[in-house]
Amino acid sequence: MSDHMINHRGPEFFELITECTEKLKQVFMTENDLFILTSSGTGALEASIVNTLSPGDKVLAASAGSFGDRYADLLDAYGAEVTRITFEWGEPIDPDGIRQGLKDDPEIKAVIVTHNETSTGVTHDLQSIASVVKGEFGKLLLVDAVSSLGCVPLPVDGWDCDVVSTGSQKGFMIPPGLAFISFGRDAWEAQKEAAMPRFYFDLEEAKKYLDRGQTPWTPNLSAMYGLRAALENIMDEGMEGVFGRHASIGQFTRDGVRAMGLELLCADEARASNTVTAVKMPIHIDGEQMMEIMRTEENVVLAGGQGKLTGHIFRIGIWATLNEEHIQEVLDALGRVLPRVGF
Amino acid sequence: MSDHMINHRGPEFFELITECTEKLKQVFMTENDLFILTSSGTGALEASIVNTLSPGDKVLAASAGSFGDRYADLLDAYGAEVTRITFEWGEPIDPDGIRQGLKDDPEIKAVIVTHNETSTGVTHDLQSIASVVKGEFGKLLLVDAVSSLGCVPLPVDGWDCDVVSTGSQKGFMIPPGLAFISFGRDAWEAQKEAAMPRFYFDLEEAKKYLDRGQTPWTPNLSAMYGLRAALENIMDEGMEGVFGRHASIGQFTRDGVRAMGLELLCADEARASNTVTAVKMPIHIDGEQMMEIMRTEENVVLAGGQGKLTGHIFRIGIWATLNEEHIQEVLDALGRVLPRVGF
């Protein structure tokens, strides 16, 4: 990431963006168009909405956590007519609920869903959801994969996901500052009529520039250098290796937490996330104090709960280059700190 | 920029964003709100529009180059009713033209203008423009300062500029990936009624988060580490030092180019940019070939012309840490290469 700057309209950048885009498609397991945006993951989510929909379009938003809610808020901001189907935070989204929602209103044009809900530590059953949305109803499927892509299986073409958005700072193991979005055939069809206003996140413009190895606006070059290196690592390991590693460390984390007498927020082991583990805060424990001691004395930064889960859970992120030794250190630190706060 | 990642909802980030924001205000010479966005400069320009205007609002867009045109395109994309006042590319925007435009249509709500037109090497007379727009007519003034801020004087409060946007990769001497925007009192007044849709670039949301030392979305942390270091350098040198250095190297570049028998695009020396020098391509010279030899044999990357200036000019960027020795190397290389292509 410390390489010197290059002309982003020149031949060196052409090579950089071409290599990154081709390898990203392998991680996304897609032949769809794929764009690198200079923004955080939320920028890609905005792109997924404004490039496919018009104000007034009916959209089904399935959510079981704060990131699912945020994606739906984005629809509201741009004037879509949103039907929200919500599930208990900590539980998986039920594909039957989506099926019912689509039956109830045939005018619904698209469904948005979060693959891995970072706020609750649940990986939703995207494969089943996609088979309902695309297979049964032929609706547009927009997926927030910020905390899943490059960690757990998400074969974009295999599951037929029209638009999939993610960020650089989780599965891709580099700092935040880039977002990636795949955009399929049905999405381009929708784009032709999509009347929501867009400029910075206009993917038609991005496609024109990508065809000549550029981005419309000045790109985050440093992060792209990091991305190139990260993608080489991922290609060397292979996607099956990446998924196996995350599955193994996810299991290790959950087993370790339960062995300490703690309870997971997600009771459904088959849907427990392999990228973030959400742990119920034991009652009578001051979570703020616990996390503060962990941070200042143990050098372990845990995340608290968001929204209505504030104070009720803490979360352990297990993305990217973390290994079992790191997680064991976290568990050992928890073993020292929790008794001090009354557990 | 290689520092390890931190929790962007934690106390270390609070310190980072607070320090950067306070020092950015000193560079902007403003007490207005100031936001750090994870995007390129165009993202800040989009923020300037969508946070102040509604679809159908009448806006005067003054332009004399491709970046001025791009800013106006952004207004079109979001449904503003745009009156374009255009000036010859290579000439400064005439404040009288803006005065006439505002007289002609009292319903105009805002004026957009590019301070330094990178495509032509002209620094427009923003002080006079602001005195017309704000002083005489009391309209909202939105300024694209991507290639001027932190290089040439732009006292945001002194000139009463409501919204000023810039990027990280020019005056701030760090890689692209961050944008900065100042947002003043009249802009907040306009924001209350601004109905353009916004989410990623919603500054009301950004303000809520900034008040607790955060950003709404995951920020480009690496670039913020670089920004902190760059701002320390700028503070050490002082704004007068920064401006004096750019004025001196701008003059050095223009004198050197003219001494070679070349002609500048900007005939008005008082308005020639101190951050980019646009040089007329001598007739009968193959500019593509000349720039290719410069790049491959002399390791000097020049920029060509954009839009209707393609093939007619080449440009020398003189931002940031470049010194006279660097420019002398560019001039020496030009002295070797130009005769080879027939000059």
Sum up the structure in keywords:
alpha/beta, homodimer, Aspartate Aminotransferase, domain 2, 12 strands, Aspartate Aminotransferase, domain 1, three-stranded antiparallel beta sheet, seven-stranded mixed beta sheet, 12 helices, pyridoxal phosphate (chains A, B), transferase (chains A, B), 343 residues, PyrdxlP-dep_Trfase (chains A, B)
Indicate the multimeric state.
homodimer
Report the mean per-residue pLDDT of chain A as an integer.
97
Largest interface, Cβ cutoff 8 Å? A-B, 44 and 44 residues
Proportion of helical residues of chain A: 40-55%
Main sheet overview of chain A: 7 strands, mixed
Structural class call of chain A reads alpha/beta
| Quantity of strands of chain A, as a count | 12
Sequence of secondary-structure elements of chain A: HEHEHEHEEEHEHEEHHHHEHEEH
Shape of chain A: globular
Distance between the termini of chain A: 43 Å
Would you identify the CATH architecture of the largest domain in chain A? 3-Layer(aba) Sandwich
In CATH, what is the homologous superfamily of the largest domain in chain A? Type I PLP-dependent aspartate aminotransferase-like (Major domain)
CATH topology of the largest domain in chain A: Aspartate Aminotransferase, domain 2
Q: Low-confidence runs of chain A (pLDDT<50, min 5 residues)?
A: none
Name of the CATH first level of the largest domain in chain A:
Alpha Beta
- The portion of residues forming beta strands of chain A comes to 15-25%
